[in-house]
Amino acid sequence: MLPFNRVSVIGLGYIGLPTAAVIASRGVEVLGVDVSEHAVNTINQGKVHIVEPDLDMLVQAAVTTGKLKASLTPEPADAFMIAVPTPFKENKSPDLSYIKAALETIAPVLVKGNLIVLESTSPVGTTEQISRWLADMRPDLKLPHNEGEQADLFIAHCPERVLPGRVLQELVSNDRIIGGITPRCAERAIELYQLFVRGECLRTTARTAEMAKLTENAFRDVNIAFANELSVICDTLKINVWELIKLANRHPRVNILSPGPGVGGHCIAVDPWFIVDSAPEQAQIIRKAREINDNKPLYVVEKIRQAADQFKKPVIACLGLAFKADIDDLRESPALDIAKQLLSENIGEILLVEPNIKQLPAKLAKYNAELTTLNQALEKANILVVLVDHKQFKTLQPADVTTKVVIDTRGIFG
Ligand code: SAJ
Question: Which residues belong to any copy of the UDP-glucose/GDP-mannose dehydrogenase C-terminal domain (predicted)?
Fold first, then answer.
């Protein structure tokens, strides 16, 4: 089988762009395709439209050497990697419309021998569904879901597993699970990933690969839910949950995660629902964990309300809006939801501190809210709510906040 001379990455977001740039840095010609004109133009100028450490340098180098180009329209290539969003709908069932739209774009340029890899986190059965959709779009081609190893196209799933903030390291160093509709589909995809992955490429079926990714995130969600439930129990029993967890974790086989204001990001709070949707009767702990984590922001708001009742003029400082420490990503952030709820209820004066952004998102700006510095917030607030454990906040000492009511959802004061 010939090597990959040209790879096309469909979807140039948090996963697609770093993947495209890393492959281009290995000397392979990469065409990135996106529906956003802004993203395409920015990348073609050698710049980035998302924040991720070192990505700007990598993209600039790849564009300057001519190995990476972005476009609104697809062109023929040896391999197509699909990295588009897979959100859920109102009823928590998966929305695969971005995947279908991506296939509709590439279908006309596909030729015999092409490899198609789905990177987007997807419910079990999606890779086979891709094969069925392509059979409708390109009746002239033989597809692996019904032609097996005789098919004209190779189709596989290789779920992305990188941690935002460490994407470039993890893209190369993580082991990858590569599931083919047939064994040859998996083998062909492994050849592609071996161009840039130093971790092991582990071969399996497409369905197992799909479930593996969902399982990893559901595992983490269930473990965070355990910590969040403990924090609520400890409030009732008047026990310091942080001290409790530190002590319990001294047991050689116990490793409790950290409670927080809820679970954010677009993966852990979404993916477990795909399992629940596929097996609603069986997925009981997984569903309950989701509910516990989704309820945690409401619990935090209630605690803030109770604290505010003690003051004639409550001034509440919210420290952090991002979905986790030391990033600028506000998407699906419980901290953001809590701030928005406080603003909408008009509980008191709300001070918002988020050192990683320069401008508030429209969701909050519409309440005439403004960003404040940590020092100003410390000066003015009588209630301090720690929502994110950013490094700037971790330097605070208990002595800095003795005059305030502190609601520390991240345990920075221990
Ligand atoms: N969180 C806690 N307590 C903890 C750990 C996390 O409350 O002890 C919260 C965070 O504050 C955040 C949320 O959970 O709001 C998720 O953060 P995270 O750092 O656990 O994970 P993500 O969403 O940034 O990335 C996850 C990773 N999955 C796993 O660790 C199993 C990453 O490897 C995946 O690639 C990514 O989801 C994805 O794209 O699916």
Answer: 317-414
How far is the centre of ligand 1, averaged over its atoms, from the C-alpha of 289 (Å)?
Answer: 14
Nearest residue CA, atom 37 of ligand 1? 267
Residue 178, by phi and psi: left (phi above 0), alpha (psi -120 to 50) or beta? beta
Q: Which atom of ligand 1 is nearest to the CA of 160?
A: 35
C-alpha 373 to ligand 1 mean position (Å): 27
> Looking at ligand 1, which atom is closest to the CA of residue 165?
24
Which is the closest atom of ligand 1 to the Cα of 15?
A: 39
371 and 330, same structural domain? Answer: yes
Domains: count for the chain: 2
Q: Is any atom of ligand 1 closer than 6 Å to the C-beta of 224? A: yes
Neighbours of 45 (CB within 10 A): 12
Residue ending a domain, among 171, 199, 227, is 199
Same domain, 299 and 226: yes
Q: Do 236 and 154 sit in the same domain of this protein? A: no
- Looking at the structure, do residues 194 and 233 belong to the same domain, yes or no? no
pLDDT tens track, the chain, 414 positions: 658 999 999 999 999 999 999 999 999 999 999 999 999 999 999 999 988 889 999 999 999 999 999 999 999 999 999 999 999 999 999 999 999 999 999 999 999 999 999 999 999 999 999 999 999 999 999 999 999 999 999 999 999 999 988 999 999 999 999 999 999 999 999 999 999 999 999 999 999 999 999 999 999 999 999 999 999 999 999 999 999 999 999 999 999 999 999 999 989 999 999 999 999 999 999 999 999 999 999 999 999 999 999 999 999 999 999 999 988 889 899 999 999 999 999 899 999 999 999 999 999 999 988 899 999 999 999 999 999 999 999 999 999 999 999 999 999 998
Distances (CA, A) of 380 to 10, 317, 364, 402: 48, 8, 20, 13
Active-site residues, by number, are 213, 267
Mutate to test the pocket of ligand 1, among 324, 329, 333, 390 (most ligand atoms within 8 A of CB): 324
Are 69 and 157 found together in one domain? yes
DSSP 40: H
| Cβ atoms of 210 and 241 closer than 8 Å | no
Stated pTM of the model: 0.93
Integer Cα distance of 232 and 50 in angstroms = 36
Q: Ligand 1 pocket: which of 220, 255, 299, 326 to mutate (most atoms <8 Å of CB)?
A: 220
DSSP state letters, 87-131: -B-TTS-B--HHHHHHHHHHGGG--TT-EEEE-S---TTHHHHHH
Q: Give the domain range for residue 226.
A: 214-408
